[in-house]
Design brief:
Elements lengths: L2 E3 L2 H9 L1 H7 L10 H9 L16 E3 L13 E5 L3 H7 L5 E3 L5 E3 L2 E6 L5 E6 L13 H12 L2 E2 L6 E3 L10 E3 L5 E3 L1 E6 L2 E5 L7 H7 L8 H4 L31 H11 L8 H8 L15 E3 L7 E6 L5 E3 L10 E5 L6 H6 L5 E4 L4 H7 L5 E7 L2 E3 L1 E5 L6 H8 L1 H9 L3 H7 L6 E2 L24 H9 L27 E7 L3 H14 L5 E7 L2 H10 L5 E4 L2 E2 L38 H14 L3 H18 L2 E6 L2 E7 L2 E2 L23 E2 L2
Parallel strand pairs: 2-16, 3-17, 23-24, 23-25
Antiparallel strand pairs: 1-6, 4-5, 6-7, 7-13, 8-9, 10-11, 12-13, 14-15, 15-17, 18-28, 19-28, 20-26, 21-25, 21-27, 22-27, 29-30
Length: 675
């Protein structure tokens, strides 16, 4: 017998007859779609609404926000361009959505079954759903993405995924086979609205992992099949010979050169330098590229390099409100590139409709609220730190790496910082001095962790540094300690800290740390990365810098999202090349704190029961407590949004974190504009 998990949302809609309202409305005069789309239907350039959305039984009815009498279609809203991880989650549509209690809710998928042994998930899709270009969305698009984009080759002996057209593979799909070897899941087509995910051993949080780590898990096969590298003559890595079951039916052989050339034929903007770059961008960060069909409420229509990114409504969007009106209400969303220092004044001037900010900018926004046409909303932040500092413990230079790995060095840097001053200057006195650790009240909290090494004690910091071998006790003519022996003998200890163009507080922190660390004999140099997209690419390629400012980082729940605290990802600055996903992962020193973190991460990845996951998560939290891999200075459990009063249906008080997709959790497709 199978346990049937049904969408309570759809069940409620059917019981209350909401969909009957969708079919005929309250009257013939009711508007069921945006006027701009109705005009296209009238002109014969767009199919009727009923032919653009799922069947009546499968259409997604958004019940969380009932439309108001004044709800209207149209309008454009503007915000700043905070990079792909700002505008990406804003309109994201995953297979399932993670809810703030850790459960999942149907979204693109309408429901799922789980076999009694916990090994097979059967995913049910919505009949009649279409991509934004009008082509059908089916289970083939899901199994093709997994079998030919996300995973393209596997080492049969080790089970390791060796190639991916998407540029990465998520460890959370790996489970142990009968021989204890970690292997990727098998994903198979059943029919156009059904596919299965088969594991080798139970993975209690698989759907949560899909929500968080690989939430897109589908792509338009017909659009992708000639731009993804494929050898049609080679046996598939899964061992499956019925290609229809894995989405491989009728796939051509595509070389790397052909993939790049074919992508360019689709859009002149797709001028990728090689197939690896193409796969990473279109196979993973696809929402940045005009012309790529999606299931999102709005799609980008211009070049990523333009000063203003324009996202226009998807005429085939598959959600309606309780009155049967197709969402979204808003026609267009614009993300404007500007210097981060201009965010506040542009919002106060009314040139932006919403901005996200932290406590550092709270006084400015709040003071201008009465005279400006916006409201400041407070959100919950589950951060382990709001202002922190990370040394790359796998840094390529051996002498610096050895120094960074010395816990006395990190101890000294921690207690040499005046957290009260940092709070006043960067946090406007609204943050709390704290170490990098799980907040009180969360399941990962460790008593005393937040208070560890937060006292301001520069004298003890100097004594700690005096006791470290390989660096001098004396200072050079410029007042800095030097290396003793090795390649850098006699050279000043200089730490290059990368800051972000969109975070002006980074530079402030480096200036403060430079002041605190100079009396210790340690020199800090700022390296500002003005191109956030280039920075992110370096991040994910594992080309991690020497040190970095850490802001609003941590974990909503280690079991569900360990990325910023575990050693699984290759984009975590303190982990660097120790990350399990790094193409050339380093092995930690035996008995080191990093070895424990790596092993605990492996245990979390391979856990087959929720209890095992809990044990692994506690090990990860404890490893941070014992080793202080990341130095936290101050923390705030709040973030803020300044939202124009012309925007209605904005959801306030939500948990603002990556796992829940930041502003995406407010369901912007339900917002509407009324001036």
């Amino acid at each position: 017998m199978k346990r049937r998990i049904v969408s309570m949302l759809m069940a409620l809609c059917l019981m209350t007859g909401v969909l009957a309202g969708f079919a005929c409305g309250a009257g013939a005069e009711d508007v069921k779609e945006a006027p701009m789309l109705a005009e296209q239907v009238q002109a014969g350039t767009l199919p009727a609404l009923a032919d653009r959305i799922p069947t009546e039984a499968d259409v997604y009815v958004e019940t969380e926000y009932s439309p108001e009498e004044t709800t209207s279609y149209g309008g454009t809203i503007r915000t700043y361009n905070g990079g792909m991880w700002y505008f990406g989650p804003f309109a994201e549509e995953p297979l399932f959505r993670l809810v703030d209690d850790g459960t999942v809710a149907p979204n693109v998928a309408k429901s799922y079954d789980l076999s009694d042994d916990g090994l097979v998930y059967t995913i049910h899709l919505r009949e009649g759903m279409k991509w934004s270009d009008g082509t059908p969305f089916t289970a083939t698009d899901c199994v093709y993405y997994y079998n030919y984009v996300l995973v393209t080759d596997v080492d049969n002996e080790t089970g390791k995924v060796t190639k991916s057209n998407a540029g990465r593979y998520y460890n959370w799909y790996m489970t142990k086979d009968e021989n204890g070897v970690m292997r990727p899941a098998q994903v198979r087509y059943v029919d156009d609205v059904t596919f299965t995910i088969s594991l080798y051993s139970p993975k209690p949080t698989l759907l949560q992992a899909i929500c968080i780590d690989n939430k897109w898990m589908f792509c338009p096969k017909e659009w992708y099949k000639d731009i993804m590298v494929n050898d049609a003559q080679k046996a598939h890595w899964s061992g499956e010979t019925d290609l229809k079951l894995i989405g491989g039916e009728d796939l051509p052989t595509i070389t790397e050169e052909e993939a790049v050339a074919n992508a360019l034929k689709k859009n002149a903007l797709y001028n990728f330098e090689n197939a690896a770059k193409l796969g990473d961008q279109l196979g993973y960060r696809y929402w940045q590229y005009a012309g790529r069909p999606t299931l999102r409420p709005w799609n980008i229509t211009n070049a990523l390099t333009d000063q203003t990114l324009v996202f226009e409504r998807n005429p085939y969007y598959w959600k309606v409100d309780t009155a049967g009106r197709q969402l979204p209400y808003i026609d267009k969303v614009e993300f404007v590139s500007m210097d981060a220092s201009l965010y506040t004044q542009e919002k106060i001037a009314g040139n932006l409709d919403f901005t996200r900010f932290d406590s550092a900018d709270f006084p400015s926004y709040k003071a201008s609220e009465p005279m400006s046409d916006y409201t400041v909303y407070t959100e919950v932040s589950p951060s382990w730190t709001s202002v922190g500092f990370e040394l790359n413990l796998s840094y390529k230079d051996e002498q610096y790496r050895t120094l960074f790995q010395n816990i006395d060095f990190r101890h000294a840097l921690s207690i040499a910082a005046d957290r009260e001053e940092i709070n006043e200057i960067i946090g406007n006195g609204m943050m709390t001095p704290a170490q990098f650790a799980a907040p009180a009240g969360t399941g990962d909290y460790i008593e005393g962790a937040l208070e560890k090494w937060i006292e301001f004690d520069p004298d003890t910091a100097n004594q700690l540094l005096d006791g470290i071998e390989g660096i001098s006790k004396d200072r050079n003519a410029d007042g800095f300690r030097t290396f003793v022996g090795g390649e850098h003998d006699g050279q000043a200890i200089t730490i290059e800290v990368e800051t972000r163009a969109d975070a002006p507080n980074d530079a402030q922190l480096v200036a403060l740390l430079s002041k605190y660390y100079k009396p210790l004999g340690i020199q800090l140099v700022e390296s500002n990365n003005t191109d956030n997209n280039a920075r992110n690419e370096r991040y994910y390629a594992g080309d991690i810098y020497m040190a970095a400012v850490n802001s609003s980082s941590g974990s909503f729940n280690i079991i569900l999202r360990p990325d910023a605290v575990a050693a699984n990802r290759n984009n975590c600055a303190f982990v660097g090349k120790y990350g399990l996903e790094h193409a050339d992962a380093m092995t930690p020193e035996p008995g080191s704190g990093m070895e424990e973190l790596v092993n605990a991460t492996k245990a979390l990845v391979s856990a087959s029961t929720f209890e095992e996951m809990q044990v692994a998560a506690k090990r990860i939290a404890q490893a941070h407590y014992d080793n202080t891999f990341v130095i936290g200075f101050v923390v705030s459990d709040r973030t803020y949004d300044a939202v124009s009063n012309r925007i209605h249906n904005f959801r306030q008080g939500f948990v603002n974190c990556d796992e829940l997709r930041f502003l995406g959790y407010t369901k912007p497709y339900t917002w509407f504009v009324q001036d």
